[in-house]
Amino acid sequence: MIGSLSKKVFLIYAVAVAVRLLFVLLYPGANYYSGITGEYLDATSNLLHGHGLSAYVDIAPYSSGLVHYAYLPFIGRPLGYVLFFAAIALVTGVVPVAFQIVQAFVTAFSVILVYKLAKILFHKSINVEKIAIAAAWLAALWPNAARFDVALLPDGLTTLVMLGIAIVLTKYALYRNTKHIIIAGILLGGSIYLRPDLVLLPFFLLPVFLFMMPWKRAVGAFGILIIILGALIGVNTWKNYALSGEFVPLNLGSGTTMYEGISQFGDTLGTTYADERVAHNKLNTKQLFYPNGKEHDQALFREAIDTIEHHPLFYTTVVLRRIPLLFTVRGLFFSDSVSFSKKGDDLSQRFPGRYITMFKEAPVATMARFLSPLLGWALLIAVIIGFVRSWRRSHEEHIMILVILFYFISTHLATNVEPRYFYPAIPLLYAYTIVGLRKRLLQ
Length: 443
Hints:
Largest sheet: 2 strands, antiparallel
Shape: globular
Helix content: 55-70%
Structural class: mainly alpha
Low-confidence stretches: 331-341, 346-351
Distance between the termini: 26 Å
Number of helices: 20
Strand content: under 5%
Mean pLDDT: 85
Number of strands: 2
């Protein structure tokens, strides 16, 4: 794949790296969801210092006023990002900025995958090269992408996996080659070691397979995905059991996500939104997953389901309120403008009155924060126009993108619409943005 790329694509990659390194200068170290980053850094340090895959946490009850630190098995977060940190730390030590620099070079590779995806999606157009190059430039220069790519979270790496899955699934839709579905299964299974968001995707793909091809071939493709995914989940389950003696197929957090998601618009029906408050107020612990993380997570999941069962109308209103939330400052395409603000700032609470004060204090930064969501809304409109135009000309090239987007939106509307959860799917939209802006490119 690399050998077939033009010098122009490598230039775009170099620019993407430079933009991301600029954001390392602007936001060095752990400064976005820093609590989660701290867990990964702690696990990396413990691994390199001979404590195995563990977390060093205070396990004294929150209300006791005591302190009792201990090493406990690290099963609360996916393993892959810890290993990514550890590989870099073998050379640099546990230095967050060094991790960001390496991550900038790695995640910038997404522009090449965006280019490759656009070439496949619009292979029938005589302007396919122009579309692909323009989409790659958008991926390289889009500031929110750069900001997320250097945040010390696994989301940027997950984007690479997401783009890879989109490429091979689209190729499978076009050419029905079994090797593409095998590669998709490997990428799908491997994604659980970064973020386990895609484990249910095969069940969304099955109806599409049945629509597109004979049922035996459709079931066979579904079976390949399930077998490979199951095998890699099995490896992760074995790892967690070997560490903790607990059967945890993925990692902890599903209960917390459900429980917090119900109270996404403030404390409601006794639920509590923030992780720290859940631990302190509900679990009487200082850490969300330690000690007894599996039991806590299961209890929260059961309580969330019980809340939904006994208050279906309330839950429906929560889900419905998430739909417009996708198109706000903390929305889907430009996810998430608030990350440009200083720690503790919430732009939704600063418009319009307090925004004027911000403008007087820092006019350039404030205008950037103001223009970012406006540009995001404009490009989101272009995405919708571009996808409709593309779909009307041909379905096969675009059906897998539609399924992935539908999967991401529908599953998260039911649980939680934290902007970073959507981030890995956003690069799937860049090519449609270009087509939405310039209709004649579809010729």
